[in-house]
Structure formats: structure tokens, C-alpha cells
Design a protein that fits this description.
The complex is a heterodimer of chains A (about 180) and B (about 170).
Chain A: E1 18-20, E2 27-33, H1 38-54, E3 58-64, H2 74-86, H3 90-99, H4 101-104, H5 108-118, H6 123-130, H7 133-148, E4 156-159, E5 162-164, H8 168-180
Parallel strand pairs in A: 2-3
Antiparallel strand pairs in A: 1-3, 2-4, 4-5
Helix pairs in contact in A: 1-8, 2-3, 2-6, 2-7
Chain B: E1 14-18, E2 21-24, E3 32-37, H1 49-54, H2 57-62, E4 65-71, H3 75-85, E5 91-93, H4 100-104, E6 108-109, E7 114-115, E8 117-122, E9 128-134, H5 143-151, H6 157-160, H7 163-169
Classes of the chains: A alpha+beta (about 180), B alpha/beta (about 170).
Chain lengths: ~180, ~170
């Protein structure tokens, strides 16, 4: 693992973050992700397995890192997830976007409408929410915080504040080791 | 071979950016320049260093900086890559004599015949203000570039912070 001052989480986890799991968990795993990124799509079920396996010992945080030039609908998907968050549905939308990535990604807005229907969200209220500058501000704040933390691609994972450089299996082991070390 | 350090005058160069266009470093005097040497075109996209920088061009512009990416690949490969990945910055071809510019900056990997993964931040006078050689397989991200640009006297930090970060800092 590379330990370098430019690969430490620059923005601590705070109330405005999207957080799953126990506040007092031994391990906090922060993902910087892009909803249209295939590698993030592949990581999604693996993160779910981690959450299941380590349960109360793991807190998971998702932050936006849309690579808009590479993935033309990534920003739109991030905005949709933020708008769903206003209705308390961030994680439902996060899950839907990754579980259905191959189905919506080629179709942009039309593809994403399926997610709005699947979650039973009010399309008109959602459209109004999407016009709020807070949505963009949240995504931009996540993105630049990621840049300053040394995010170098998607997904990027931080284990207790340190950028993890390596494959997913080793990530699982390193989380397991941190948890095992606890009294 | 040692990477050129901060305080060194950046070696001049003129390289092809397209089959019929060249870019000379001295054209950018008065602006800050980010030189990103990279090993090869066509690395996987999700972990692509240049894809990240492509998202940060507004941020670099705000810090009065121009990004120039350099590899030993030929101009036609660069042209295809820029089109495919929608890059909006020059890809320079250090092709003939191969790796000459990378050598001048002390970042040529003679064994692999490729440029190392190296970053330089140059000020408006063409002086290197920050340099970093990343292990070949490790994408260095952009945190070091942003910090180095913000540290330049011409980029007053208070002025350079985005509005929301300035608020948080206050």
C-alpha cells in the first residue's frame, strides 16, 4: 500500500455524507464512485458482500466522482441519486443504478427514468429538486474533495482514511486484519 | 537518471501534437504549465490518469495552468486516443528522437523504452516548481498538482480556493 501525503482522505466523513452502517464501526470504507463506470459496477456486489460479512464493524460511505467526459451520463446519474436523497431514497437509487447499469447506461435520461419509476418517486417533484443548485454543489464538493485526497480513478476506496491501491481481494483482507486487531 | 527537481529551468522542447502541428514549451511563458509524462496511450479508462486530468481542465485554468501530456507514442495514436476519450488538451509525441524530451527531464525508462509516469509543475518563467516520479504502475492522481499550483506565488491561496472550500476554511 502506498502511504503518501497525497493519498489521505482530505475531507473527513461528516453528516452530509451518504453513510451506511454503525457510526462506531472499527472500519470506515469510503468509496469515490461513478454510477456509469463499469469497474464501479463490478465493485458494487463486492462492497455488498463486505457489508454483509463485517456487519457492525464496517461503516460504508459513498461519494460522487463522475468522470463526465469518459461516461456521458455519470453526472446525470449522480444528480438523480442526490435528488432521490432529498426523498430519503439515496441508497435505493444507488443500488438501482449499479444493479441496472447495463440497462440504463446506453440510454441516458430515458434509461434513468426507469429508475424513477422503479423506486416509485414522484417525477415532477424530482424534476423540481434537480434544478436546485445544492445538488450540483454536493457532487462538485465530493469530486474536488476526492481530487485533493488523491483519487486517481474510479472506484477509489479509502480504509480508515487511507487510499487503498490494490485489488479487491487484498482490500477485503486488509479490512479483515484491521477488524481482527480490535480487542 | 534523476528527475529534474524544483528550482531547475525546464528544458525547452518543440513536439508534434498532431501530424501537422507542433507545440513549443516557450509558447506558454507567462502561464503555468503542467507536464504529465505517461508510459503509453490506451491504458484502461476507469483508472486512466489522463481521464482524471481531462475532468480538471477548468480547475487547472482557474490556476492559470495549461496541461501538456507527453508520451513516446506517435501522433496518429495520440489523435485516435484524444478522439476516443474526448481529451481536450494536447498530447505531445516524444517520438523522434524517441524519448529525447523525457530524457532531458530525467524520466525516461530506457529499459522499457517509454516515458516514466512523471509530473512537473512549471511557473510562468519556465522554472520547475514541483516534480514527482510515480512508480510505473501507480496512477498519481492530481492532488500533488493542485497543491503545487496553489502554492505558486502567482496563485494566491485565498483567491484560488473555490467559494465552498473558502467558506469551510473560514
Amino acid at each position: 500500500m502506498m502511504l503518501h501525503e497525497d493519498s489521505i482522505l482530505a475531507v473527513p466523513v461528516a453528516a452530509h455524507d451518504h453513510i451506511q452502517g454503525n457510526t462506531h464501526a472499527v472500519v470506515t470504507l469510503v468509496e469515490y464512485g461513478d454510477f456509469q463506470c463499469p469497474a464501479c459496477g463490478m465493485a458494487y456486489p463486492l462492497v455488498k458482500q463486505l457489508q454483509h460479512r463485517y456487519a457492525g464493524n464496517l461503516r460504508f460511505v459513498f461519494r460522487h466522482f463522475p468522470l463526465s467526459q469518459a461516461h456521458p451520463y455519470a453526472q446525470m446519474a449522480a444528480e438523480l441519486a442526490e435528488a432521490a436523497a432529498v426523498e430519503g431514497q439515496f441508497w435505493a437509487m444507488h443500488d438501482w443504478l449499479y444493479e441496472n447499469q447495463p440497462d440504463w447506461a446506453p440510454y441516458g435520461g430515458a434509461g434513468l427514468e426507469a429508475g424513477v419509476r422503479a423506486l416509485g418517486l414522484d417525477a415532477q417533484a424530482l424534476a423540481a429538486t434537480l434544478r436546485s443548485p445544492d445538488i450540483d454543489a454536493h457532487i462538485r464538493r465530493d469530486f474536488m474533495g476526492g481530487v485533493r485526497s488523491g483519487v486517481n480513478g474510479t472506484p477509489s476506496f479509502y480504509v480508515n482514511g487511507y487510499l487503498y491501491q490494490g485489488d479487491f481481494d487484498t482490500l477485503v483482507h486488509s479490512i479483515g486484519r484491521v477488524i481482527a486487531r480490535q480487542p | 537518471m534523476t528527475i529534474l527537481a524544483a528550482g531547475t529551468a525546464a528544458p525547452e522542447f518543440t513536439l508534434h501534437s498532431t501530424p501537422d502541428q507542433t507545440v513549443a514549451l516557450k509558447e506558454f511563458r507567462g502561464r503555468n504549465v503542467i507536464l504529465a509524462f505517461y508510459p503509453a496511450d490506451w491504458s484502461p479508462v476507469c483508472s486512466d490518469q489522463l481521464a482524471l486530468y481531462n475532468e480538471l481542465l477548468d480547475e487547472f485554468a482557474r490556476l492559470n495552468a495549461q496541461l501538456l501530456a507527453i508520451s513516446v507514442d506517435g501522433v496518429w495514436s495520440h489523435a485516435a486516443l484524444a478522439r476516443e476519450r474526448k481529451y481536450h488538451f494536447p498530447l505531445l509525441s516524444d517520438f523522434e528522437p524517441k524519448g529525447e524530451v523525457a530524457r532531458a527531464y530525467g524520466v525516461y525508462d530506457a529499459k522499457g523504452g517509454i516515458a516514466g509516469r512523471a509530473l512537473f509543475v512549471l511557473d510562468g518563467d519556465g522554472v520547475i516548481r514541483w516534480s514527482y516520479l510515480s512508480p510505473m504502475g501507480v496512477n498519481p492522481g492530481a492532488a500533488g498538482i493542485i497543491k503545487a499550483l496553489e502554492a505558486l506565488p502567482s496563485n494566491n491561496v485565498q483567491k484560488a480556493l473555490p467559494a465552498d472550500a473558502a467558506q469551510e476554511a473560514a
